[in-house]
Specification:
Elements (H helix, E strand, L loop, with lengths): L2 H19 L9 H6 L8 E5 L5 E5 L2 H7 L9
Antiparallel strand pairs: 1-2
């Protein structure tokens, strides 16, 4: 892959990570798509703002994800 294509791919992945970290599913993608690309699911990432205004995107640990994810995924409203 040429440098321009690699750069474009990195930008595309970064845009997906940015959307995922806000807790949303990227438009036009499914959970299976994200898994196939090796990306986390919405809710597995969170944003942390530093004192200097820098925004870090961090991933919850597997133990934290297990606590967040309900055992029974069906929720009746």
């Amino acid at each position: 892959m040429c440098w321009a294509c690699e750069s474009g791919e990195r930008e595309r992945i970064w845009a997906l990570i940015d959307v995922i970290s806000s807790g949303q599913m990227p438009a036009g993608h499914t959970a299976e798509d994200l898994s196939a690309m090796g990306l986390p699911q919405p809710g597995e990432l969170y944003r942390e703002e530093q004192a200097d205004g820098t925004i870090l995107i961090r991933q919850h640990s597997p133990a934290e994800i297990a606590k967040i994810t309900p055992k029974n995924k069906f929720i009746c409203e």
